[in-house]
Design goal:
181 residues, globular
């Protein structure tokens, strides 16, 4: 499987949709992105906290493929890295095609285990009207395709910088298809 690279890094210390670009982020094992509002062992997304604040945080790190930004630009959307809330913008990896539990090594040490798909929310339309619909699609059988990135948990601490290589370690078969988390 082809390696990819980091093209943007973003974080926000408050619960805003947009995260702000930075030249590096530090991942903390079992917690997420240092300095980000979603850092923690238990769920930090406000809607999930309201339902059950003791749920494990399976959404510590949000990754989006830069190719999605390009696809959206072709449809007339002006979406830049971090605008849709992602921490890591990648290039050269089919993130949506990875199986659940894939491990991404980013840079020399950081490891993220993929837990599932990000479920796009109506806040995307606050960025630009129609954006939520633009990150949803249907396959040939009519099944919903969520294109707004993937979520993961941090397995190993590490500093990530722009341009870092991302290597992929697939889990043992049978591979599980990503579902929303």
């Amino acid at each position: 499987m082809k390696n990819g690279k980091v093209v943007a890094l973003s974080k926000s210390s408050t619960h805003t949709m947009q995260k702000f670009n930075t030249s590096q982020i530090k991942l903390r094992k079992g917690l997420g992105v240092e300095g980000d509002a979603h850092l923690g062992e238990t769920v930090k997304h406000r809607s999930r906290v309201a339902k059950d604040p003791s749920q494990p945080n399976l959404r510590q790190v949000h990754l989006i493929h830069h190719e999605l930004h390009q696809e959206l630009a072709a449809k007339g959307f002006d979406v830049t890295p971090g605008l849709m809330g992602e921490n890591i913008t990648t290039e050269g990896i089919d993130l949506l095609g990875l199986p659940k539990n894939t491990i991404l090594t980013i840079g020399s040490k950081a490891k993220v285990q993929i837990t599932g798909l990000r479920n796009p929310c109506h806040q995307l339309d606050g960025i630009q009207q129609g954006l939520m619909k633009a990150v949803l699609d249907r396959d040939a059988e009519g099944n919903l395709i969520r294109k707004a990135g993937i979520m993961g948990i941090v397995l190993a601490d590490g500093l990530i910088e722009l341009g870092d290589e991302i290597t992929i370690e697939l889990p043992a078969k049978p591979h599980l298809v990503l579902e929303r988390v």
